[in-house]
TrEMBL record:
SUPFAM superfamilies: ATPase domain of HSP90 chaperone/DNA topoisomerase II/histidine kinase, Ribosomal protein S5 domain 2-like. Residues 350-386 are annotated as: Disordered. It is found in: Nucleus. This is DNA mismatch repair protein MLH1 isoform X5. Residues 525-559 form a coiled coil. Its main location: nucleus. The keyword Transport does not apply. InterPro entries: DNA_mismatch_repair_CS, DNA_mismatch_S5_2-like, HATPase_C_sf, Mlh1_C, MutL/Mlh/PMS, MutL/Mlh/Pms-like, Ribosomal_Su5_D2-typ_SF, Ribsml_uS5_D2-typ_fold_subgr. Belongs to the DNA mismatch repair MutL/HexB family. NCBIfam families: mutl. Residues 223-345 form the DNA mismatch repair protein S5 domain. Keywords: Coiled coil, DNA damage, DNA repair, Nucleus. Pfam families: DNA_mis_repair, HATPase_c_3, Mlh1_C.
């Protein structure tokens, strides 16, 4: 494709250095994304300070006030001036320390960040002192000299007016009612792990605390006092470990719910080396086990604490430390999965089955769209007991479900029970021999490439499998013979769409928009959507420029877009037709603005600058 020179050559814009305060505010907005992120950082600091009692007070979902008080070792008077500067920490001094870090903080970023997006006041007293000190911070520095004051043991940190200088975020948060819920949820999680610490969490003005735990030697007691009897009485203790340096080294212990525990949502409380983290791969692996063994109780409650040698955990992979990455994660996940599986099976057998009434299960699982009946019947013959981890594969290359971002709203639409895949494939076959497509050798090469790389075994599996249902937002369960497969619908769909485009290249049927849509407005919409949670408005002019440029670009290319892709743009810059990639599948029209923006931004401009 030829590259045409732009008609009007624009001067390149000047590049300038951002003000430091702007840089800091942007960075702070990433560390402290929500009120609950501030609470997490503060509580972790209190835990790092060896506190035995931590209480949290919240006003207006955290936007008006977050107050965290502890009875820890306090902060030295001499350290107060640099306490809230970025990258000041007592927990790390050289990079190598990260390998063996045991404390929860290490970046020295949390308190600093809070001072850039809120008003922070610290009151603290160290051992042996007669009085404490109080000092307030703004933008990383003290607002005044520390003042002597009366204080009880430990540290109290108050954040007022969080996000006062981030209008858009404040607005979105003001309308959301669940910020306090998230904080309560967070404290509940901490409370059942750190059972030697007592936690409380209270809404300002409320007489009763919503989380109230006292130090106890029994984890089950802690769970009972925080999550209630209905959870605590339906738990099974679980343990696993491995000490083989060639595969994995870890210890795990926890509690998992039994067949009597029925909930709408999975609760997974996971601590790795005492850090509260998320691990989508593990969560998904366990949910699959529950679906297969306890279909009626398939949304479990799971508390799990995993310890590994510190040098096997990279704690520095996520700005808010929410995720960690593990050495041999795949092996560990698989081992834990199989232990959970056998525990659940045993518990299932030793029970009476009154709660687990299973309908007469045919030898082949009955398959409906949204329901799973994969339960081995309780009378289960031994031959059926293939460990789940042997018949179900999870995708370990997907570290944390980041694919969610690309998710189509309703994947079932095109991976429906009557397997539209087969329909697709036959239409693909019809198209494959179209002479005209072969005219374009570059396209033909890409198609040949796909055919060459096609794995016939996998193709057979997809072709002959039965769709069972969605395991979660991303994975569909497919059955092929006696095997159960998890198929990443997002990846499958992308690949399918890509192949469709190649095979229908220049021969698309069209979807006619009921009303032609002006490109420039579509692009503006997409741009606004993109940073709806940032402070917008300020760069509306910039957005207009981008929209203008992209529209121009698309207009220039309209002939090519029409001929090859059946994307119609009329002379007034209106989009009127889109290609049909998959028969009977209408794409989500809400995504058209995003599509047009990508078309201009990622595709055409790439070609523009490309070789
Ligand atoms: P980090 O936790 O990564 O070191 P922070 O910004 O969260 O960074 O905290 C900076 C330092 O302030 C900590 O290293 C610690 O020395 C001190 N500190 C913060 N909160 C407390 C607290 N509640 N009790 C004692 N010291 C604290
Ligand atoms: Mg910290």
């Amino acid at each position: 494709m030829e590259i045409e020179p732009a008609e009007e050559v624009k001067e390149p814009p000047r590049i300038h250095r951002l003000d430091e305060s702007v840089v800091n505010r942007i960075a702070a907005g990433e560390v402290i994304q929500l009120p609950v992120s501030a609470v997490k950082e503060l509580v972790e600091n209190s835990l790092d300070a060896s506190s035995t009692s931590i209480s949290v007070l919240v006003k207006d979902g955290g936007l008006k006030l977050i107050q965290v008080s502890d009875d820890g070792h306090g902060i030295r008077y001499e350290d107060l001036p640099i306490l809230c500067e970025r990258h000041t920490t007592s927990k790390l001094s050289k990079y190598e320390d990260l390998q063996s870090i045991k404390s929860m903080g290490f970046r020295g970023e949390a308190l600093a960040s809070m001072t850039y997006v809120g008003h922070v006041t610290v009151t603290t007293i160290t051992r042996g002192q007669l009085h404490g000190y109080r000092v307030s911070y703004r933008d990383g520095v003290m607002e005044n000299e520390p003042k002597a004051c009366a204080a009880v043991k430990g540290t109290q940190i108050v954040i007022e007016n969080l996000f006062y200088n981030m209008v858009a975020r404040r607005k979105t948060l003001q309308n959301s009612a669940d910020d306090y819920t998230k904080i309560v949820d967070l404290l509940s999680r901490f409370a059942i792990h750190h059972i030697d610490v007592s936690f409380s969490c209270r809404k300002h003005g409320a007489a009763r605390a919503d989380v109230h735990s006292v130090a106890t030697p029994s984890r089950l007691n802690a769970i009972r006092s925080v999550y209630g009897l209905s959870v605590a009485q339906n738990l099974i203790k679980i343990e696993a470990s491995d000490n083989d340096p060639s595969s994995s080294v870890f210890e795990m212990d926890g509690f998992i719910s039994n067949s009597n525990y029925v909930a709408k949502k999975t609760t997974m409380v996971l601590f790795i080396n005492d850090r509260l983290v998320e691990c989508t791969a593990l969560k998904r692996a366990l949910e699959v086990v529950y679906v297969a063994t306890l279909p009626k109780a398939s949304k479990p409650f799971i508390y799990m604490s995993i310890t590994l040698p510190p040098e096997h955990v990279d704690v520095n992979v996520h700005p808010t430390k929410r995720e960690v990455s593990l050495l041999n994660q795949e092996v560990i996940v698989e081992k834990i999965q199989s232990v959970v599986e056998s525990v659940l099976r045993n518990s299932n057998e030793s029970r009476t089955f009154q709660e687990q009434t299973v309908e007469a299960t045919p030898s082949v699982p009955s398959v409906t769209n949204n329901d799973l009946h994969l339960s081995p019947s309780p009378s289960g013959s031994k031959s059926q007991r293939v460990p789940v981890n042997k018949i179900v594969r999870t995708d370990s290359s997907d570290p944390a479900g980041r694919m969610h971002a690309y998710l189509y709203k309703n994947p079932q639409k095109y991976l429906g029970r009557d397997s539209s895949l087969t329909t697709v494939r036959s239409s693909v076959r019809q198209r494959r021999n179209l002479k005209e497509t072969a005219d374009l050798t570059s396209i033909q090469e890409l198609i040949n490439d796909i055919d060459r790389k096609c794995n016939s075994g996998l193709l057979d599996i997809v072709r002959q499998s039965t769709y069972i249902g969605m395991a979660d937002d991303v994975f569909a369960l497919l059955q092929h013979n006696t095997h159960l497969y998890l198929a990443n619908v997002v990846n499958l769909s992308k690949e399918l769409m890509y192949q469709q485009v190649l095979r229908r290249f220049a021969h698309f049927n069209a979807i006619q928009l009921s009303e032609p849509a002006p490109l420039q407005e579509l692009i503006m919409l997409a741009l606004k959507e993109e940073d709806s949670d940032l402070e917008s408005n300020e760069n509306d002019d910039l957005k207009k420029k981008i929209a203008e440029m992209n529209t121009q670009l698309l207009n220039q290319k309209s002939e090519m877009l029409e001929e090859y892709f059946c994307i119609f743009i009329d002379s007034d810059g209106n989009l009127s037709r889109l290609p049909i990639l998959l028969d009977q599948y209408i794409p989500d029209m809400d995504r058209v603005p995003e599509f047009v923006l990508c078309l201009g931004n990622d595709v055409l401009q790439m070609e523009w600058h490309g070789p």
